[in-house]
């Protein structure tokens, strides 16, 4: 039954039944628009229900596109000097309107899909903020209980006001559909949700390189403790969190710096930092929101400082972090070469050596895996990438550069009475020799 009165009745009584009515009568555009309106409603509706509305709106839009395309009836005729085939529609005006309608439905469907992507980030923000809110509420209650005073002091009143605002924002995240701008400025910025901020910047195609670098640095140092048991560690942490740092500034959030761990107790915080970087890097790799050289610069600075503080770390720890996010061996090697050039003028020789050590470990791992795969006839992606690099001469260029760097460091360490650094230099030089032998072997194979 088709009836305008029935549509009006169903709209007032049950949008679900009205949606089914539109679907049964192949009025897919109306069905999609109805669900889209429901998903964007200003009323309190939980996010899961809004997601269901959006999925239905997208499904109806897809059926509308298929229906519109199926109902276009082309008529062929021959015309022109060369008797070429011309395809036109029996009613040109109707056809133009049909094409315009199809394009509009496609545009609306893509907008709905973008909204679904943003909801993923809104859910992330809601999860973070809910956890922070519950934790801060517990701390606030413990603080009030410990005073034994029913009257709140001025500081407690401010904390209570901030908690009330936080509670309202948690409610918004659970029951409202926020746009990118609203989510970024009202939620992620004030509450220092740097990973969600980077995902939103990427979704909005924002190319603010300084802002992206600042957010990445802030995310990394969210995990780094503020205390150190060594003079070198203390100096490093002070320099990184200095308020005077303009270009390399980071956003400091005291709540995240309240860990009792010491900088040298790397096992208590370093794995969490690497996991956060790797997870976010996997989502942003290849976009302007992932400045590889800046991320590698900061992480290597942390790792080399830990080693300078006599903290024992596996040499391949950081390269594994980047490979886990999906970066290619060749891409990571080029980042290390660029980083050495960057560090050659501003870092100490021992830190420069750590960069070359990481590069040699990366090359050893790359050639080792390739040789193992080729021995069983398996040409994986990284194996093909290595062979392309060898045959194109890029590998030779990389090796020659790294050898020059080793040679320049050898002269700097010749006068330094440090057995550990000299040994690392000798080991790294030896590793490059082994790498070269493997490359020759792979070339012959």
Describe the structure.
Mean pLDDT is 85; it is low at 73-92. 28% of the residues are buried. The termini are far apart. This protein has helices at 4-13, 15-24, 28-39, 47-70, 92-147, 154-175, 180-188, 194-203, 209-222, 231-240, 270-284, 292-308, 317-324, 329-343, 349-375, 381-392, 394-413, 419-444, and strands at 74-79, 84-89. Helix 1 runs antiparallel to helix 2 (15-24), helix 14 runs antiparallel to helix 15 and helix 15 (349-375) packs across helix 16. It has a two-stranded antiparallel ribbon. The chain has 445 residues and is mainly alpha-helical. It is 71% helix and 3% strand. It has 18 helices and 2 strands. A hairpin with a 4-residue loop joins strand 1 (74-79) and strand 2 (84-89).
Secondary-structure element series: HHHHEEHHHHHHHHHHHHHH
Q: Taking Cα atoms only, what radius of gyration do you get, to the nearest Å?
A: 30 Å
Overall geometric form: flat
What is the average of the pLDDT values? 85
Strand content is under 5%
**How widely separated are the two ends?**
74 Å
Q: Mind describing the biggest β-sheet?
A: 2 strands, antiparallel
How many β-strand runs?
A: 2
Structural class: mainly alpha
The protein's oligomeric status is single chain
Number of helices: 18
Q: Bin the helical content.
A: over 70%
Task: Return residue spans where pLDDT drops below 50 for at least 5 consecutive residues.
Answer: 73-92
Describe the strand arrangement of the main beta sheet, using strand numbers: 1-2
């Amino acid at each position: 039954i088709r009836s305008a009165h029935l549509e009006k009745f169903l709209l007032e009584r049950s949008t679900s039944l009205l949606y089914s009515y539109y679907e049964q009568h192949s009025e897919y555009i109306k069905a999609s628009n109805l669900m889209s309106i429901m998903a964007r409603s200003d009323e309190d509706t939980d996010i899961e229900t809004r997601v269901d509305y959006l999925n239905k709106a997208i499904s109806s839009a897809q059926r509308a596109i298929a229906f519109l395309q199926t109902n276009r009836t082309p008529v062929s005729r021959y015309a022109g000097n060369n008797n070429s085939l011309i395809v036109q529609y029996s009613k040109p005006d109707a056809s133009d309107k049909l094409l315009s309608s199809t394009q509009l439905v496609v545009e609306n469907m893509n907008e709905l899909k973008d909204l679904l992507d943003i909801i993923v980030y809104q859910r992330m923000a809601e999860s973070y903020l809910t956890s922070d809110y519950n934790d801060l509420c517990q701390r606030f209650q413990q603080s009030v209980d410990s005073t034994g005073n029913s009257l709140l002091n001025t500081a407690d009143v401010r904390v209570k006001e901030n908690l009330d605002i936080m509670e309202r924002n948690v409610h918004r995240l659970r029951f409202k559909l926020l746009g990118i701008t609203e989510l970024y400025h009202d939620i992620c910025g004030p509450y220092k949700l740097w990973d969600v901020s980077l995902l939103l910047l990427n979704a909005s195609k924002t190319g603010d390189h300084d802002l992206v670098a600042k957010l990445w640095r802030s995310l990394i140092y969210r995990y780094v403790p503020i205390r150190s048991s060594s003079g070198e560690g203390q100096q490093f942490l002070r320099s990184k969190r200095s308020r005077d740092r303009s270009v390399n500034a980071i956003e400091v959030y005291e709540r995240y710096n309240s860990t009792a761990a010491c900088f040298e107790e790397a096992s208590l915080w370093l794995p969490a930092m690497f996991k956060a970087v790797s997870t976010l890097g996997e989502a942003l790799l290849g976009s302007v929101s992932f400045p590889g050289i800046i991320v590698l610069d900061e992480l290597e600075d942390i790792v080399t400082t830990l080693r300078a503080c006599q903290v024992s770390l596996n040499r391949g720890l950081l390269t594994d972090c980047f490979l886990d996010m999906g970066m290619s061996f060749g891409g990571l090697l080029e980042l290390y070469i660029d980083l050495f050039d960057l560090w050659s003028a501003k870092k100490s020789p021992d830190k420069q050596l750590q960069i070359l050590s990481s590069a040699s470990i990366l090359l050893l791992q790359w050639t080792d895996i390739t040789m193992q795969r080729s021995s069983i006839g398996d040409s994986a992606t990284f194996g093909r990438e290595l062979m392309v690099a060898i045959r194109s001469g890029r590998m030779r260029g990389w090796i020659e550069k790294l050898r020059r760097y080793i040679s320049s460091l050898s002269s700097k360490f010749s006068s330094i009475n440090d057995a550990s650094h000299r040994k690392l230099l000798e080991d790294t030089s030896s590793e490059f020799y082994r790498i070269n032998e493997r490359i020759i072997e792979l070339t012959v194979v």
